[in-house]
Amino acid sequence: MNTLVSKLEHKWIIFTFRQPWIPTTAACKVNLSTLPPDPVIPSKKPFKVDLVGGKRYSWCTCGHSKKQPFCDGAHKTKAQGLSPHRFVPEKDATVWLCGCKYTNNPPYCDGTHKQDFIKSAPLHEPGDS
Fold this sequence. Notes:
By secondary structure, the protein is an alpha+beta fold. It contains 4 helices and 4 strands, in the order H-H-E-E-H-E-E-H. It has a domain of 88 residues. A two-stranded antiparallel sheet has the order 1-4. Strands 2-3 form a two-stranded antiparallel sheet.
C-alpha cells in the first residue's frame, strides 16, 4: 500500500489510504436540567431610574427580586443559574431599565415588553414562587 501511495503522490489519495472515511453519527447532547431557568416577568413596563455615575449597580435578571429593577439575591434560591447584570454608568443619568427581563440590551429597556409574548405572559407577583 505504501508503494502505491508514493507513486501516486496525491494528497487526497494519501489521506484516503491512511485514514479511510468511516461514517459516524454525532449528536449534540444537552442536559436540559442544567440550563438556567427563564426569568419571570415582574413588570410589563420599564422602570425609570436616576443612576449615579461611577456607582456599581446590580440589575435583576431573574425577576424574583422584591427591589425591582435591582437585585436582592432572590436568584440564589428561586432561579439558580441566573445572576445579576452588574454595570457602572459613566455619568449621572435618568434611564429606563427593563422590567420584563427579556431585553436584548441589558439592563436598558429596548421595547421588548411591547411584543405579544410578553403581553400575553402572566405577571409575576413578589410573593409567588
